[in-house]
Design goal:
The chain has 91 residues and is α+β, with helices and mostly antiparallel strands. The chain has helices at residues 30-42, 82-90; strands at 46-50, 56-62, 67-70, 73-76.
Amino acid sequence: MARHGSEYKLFDSEAKFANGFRYRPDFITEDEEELLLSFIAAQDLKRVTAGENDEYVGRRHYKHFGWSFRRDTLVPGPELPRFLQRFARRI
């Protein structure tokens, strides 16, 4: 997935980062970035909801791997896909 026109990479700016946060240039290759973006685009992402009857719907989307939440309870979720495990080890 190519970036559109004037879109920046996540860390193109000289912004100050939160204490403990480390930016590691080239942590993933451009090919890995494309693979990850394609994977994310193909996922069935859920919208963030809150409230007793999920009456609040947020703008963020998510997908859990390993564990998930059902109401306020932690429950087993789908396993982390094999190709993502290499990134998890690297992190």
